[in-house]
Write a structure and sequence with these properties.
- It is a single chain.
- The protein is mainly α.
- The protein has 8 helices and no strands.
- The chain has a single domain (about 1-195), classed as Serine Threonine Protein Phosphatase 5, Tetratricopeptide repeat (Alpha Horseshoe), CATH 1.25.40.600.
- Helix 2 packs antiparallel against helix 4 (about 65-80).
Amino acid sequence: MSNVGLLYVGAVLLVNGMALLGKVPVRSAAALNLFVGALQCVIPTVLIIQADGDADAVLAASGLYLFGFTYLYVGIVNLAGIEPEGIGWFSLFVAAAAVVYAGISFFRNGDPVFGVIWLSWALLWALFFLVFGLGEERLTRFTGWAVVLLSQPTCTLPAFLALTGSLRSDTGTGLLAAGLAVALVALAAVLAAQRKSFVPQPVLAKES
């Protein structure tokens, strides 16, 4: 069930990345954030209820709320025109938690692929903190490209592979995932540097 939610997280991250690049109006992105945010809160709640006290199942579901709350928060901020600093500082919490979940994936679950994926999410949410919490607008374009480029390989692709029973996670695939993530972040930096005079539209910007 969690892989169904992950599939749509890929969609909302893509849209949010395009909003950061000024390609999608923030109010237009709000609806999808609310839809996916609600889904990412309902799914872990159902999984925890079904877990019937199984600590491992509860742990696996617990991280989904980090993203459900993020998207609900983003949707509300975009619609209401609220200042984005709150979501920025919440993103710092999400980034720190994602590092912990990455460690759990690597060292407890023996799942290096999702360890890399969690680290990729930690990077994205750390960038959200810098842009919206600390007001580092110069990073907005890089953040937008990083979100766009990482959205599909960290969400949509593993979701489809897991749903079809094709997802593998071993040392080799973990290294491949890490190499791909590094290459995509580097590409985001190159793309962001190409138009330094471009003024992006922040996905959480307060509208007048």
